[in-house]
């Protein structure tokens, strides 16, 4: 089966689900599919449907071109697939890129439309990064909340709506099971919700766990006394989510502070504090900071937090490295993150 590699060039961030159109006005492509995930999620919630994500490269990839013409643009697709799923279709082709450039002597409306589509392309790339999308066409099934159920193992030879519909039916059971787990996170006592969130998070493939960060960040609020023993774990995840968002905006200090502040929570375990201090030091080092004293401070705090951990030897070597930089003002590249 021949497929075309998909080039991932966007930064991986966790807060990219933005609406790119006018308020309450969903953006649709020529096939009638949603172009922005926020509108797709609203529609899916309204209709209580899973979201079918289709990533293509029309014209640049002949399989995508056939898939679009023989499946997506057909009346049968609208009747068989469009009524069961909310469809989010993102195309990365040259045709799509051309829409990001306003024509010569463009009107104000044409310029705004080009800018709008450029934003769609940017958020679409970020979305594809989180999905770990490597080729086109790629197809994924998400819950109405935007949690990944599964990648759909699409075969290039499937260019008929009936066959595609049959393929999707293979995912009905896994969809039902995951949606049941999602429902459990909204019912029962706060502690029961916490247990359900943790079960859902742990049962999700690691690649797709970032889609659940907003849900996971509810745990410290739902379980303020740490009856579940899970607060520390999800405080680290929440800190990482916030730090990544700040780091990609160029706010290195804010990203570092996010990790350091997390350590003040009384329910943080020693290994979790170590992770936060270590990541604070790593962010500073990887950003090119020459404040070696501050980096050493965080590394020493990481080491003292849990001196018997598996990471202690590596942290000690990093401490030696930065001490050397302080002594001679030069050194080789800092150790890679472990």
Tell me about this structure:
This protein is an alpha+beta fold. Helix content is 53%, strand content 8%. It has 15 helices and six strands. A four-stranded mixed beta sheet has the order 3-2-5-6, sandwiched between helices. The protein has a two-stranded antiparallel ribbon with strand order 1-4. Helix 7 packs antiparallel against helix 8. It is globular, with a radius of gyration of 23 Å. The two termini are 36 Å apart.
* Largest sheet, spatial ordering of strands: 3-2-5-6
**Could you tell me how far the N terminus lies from the C terminus, measured between alpha carbons in angstroms?**
36 Å
Q: Major β-sheet, in short?
A: 4 strands, mixed
Order of helices and strands: EHEHHEHHEEEHHHHHHHHHH
Find the count of extended strands (DSSP E, 2+ residues).
6
Give the overall pLDDT as a whole number. 85
Low-confidence stretches: 1-23
Estimate what percentage of residues fall within beta strands. 5-15%
Number of helices: 15
From the spread of the alpha carbons, the general shape counts as: globular
| Backbone structural class | alpha+beta
Share of residues in helices: 40-55%
Radius of gyration: 23 Å
